[in-house]
Design a protein that fits this description.
mainly beta, six-stranded mixed sheet
């Protein structure tokens, strides 16, 4: 990449094979693809480049990719922050890279570097595995971060526990039909006897 700015033109190399420089991180740069390059002022070929890092006072921590959240359930959106990015953040839901809804237009930033918002996912939310969440400072929208990877919004599910194969139930006797469920599939279920296989 191109040089964005010079941090120091001539910092002491250090002693005993180790050096350091106290750098005040600028408030005017917000980016996730930054690197630091250190080059000897004596030998231009003696140089090293850091791995990529970010300057951003807000970092989304959940959902950050790979989660499977069920519609009609409460989930916790969380973020870390540094300094003073402002008193509130806007929280948005993205699907396939586009904003589909504003979850909260102005949630409190949090306390002691950590923020969270309890989100009840709509029961009518479209199901899919290409969702991300974005948080942005309402005072400075450049201070923003999104999920690193996609997460899924799934529907409620029901699984039959009994009978579940191989049982022989005697006619005229009472048997217990049981099931498990995740999410909120509603208040009642219909139970049917199905004959034959599909």
């Amino acid at each position: 990449g191109a040089v964005y700015s010079t941090i120091a033109t001539s910092a002491p190399v250090g002693t005993g094979g180790s050096g350091s420089f106290a750098w005040t991180v600028p408030t005017t740069v917000v980016s996730s693809d930054l690197q630091v390059r250190i080059t000897s002022t004596t030998y231009s070929w003696c140089t090293a480049l850091s791995n990529k890092f970010s300057i951003n006072p807000i970092r989304l921590t959940a959902p950050n990719g790979g989660e499977s959240w069920t519609a009609a359930t409460k989930q916790s959106i969380t973020w870390d922050y540094a300094g003073d990015p402002g008193p509130t953040v806007k929280i948005e839901l993205l699907k396939a890279g586009s904003v589909v809804s504003t979850i909260k237009p102005a949630a409190p930033i949090g306390k002691k570097g950590k923020g969270s918002y309890s989100w009840t996912i709509s029961a009518k939310e479209a199901l899919g595995s290409d969702y991300r969440v974005r948080v942005a400072s309402t005072a400075n929208p450049a201070y923003t971060d999104s999920s690193d990877a996609n997460f899924a919004i799934t529907g409620p599910e029901i699984d039959v526990v009994a009978p579940n194969g191989g049982e022989i139930w005697e006619a005229g006797k009472k048997q217990k039909i049981s099931w498990t469920f995740t999410g909120k599939p509603g208040d009642h279920v219909k139970i049917e006897l199905v004959k034959g296989t599909t």
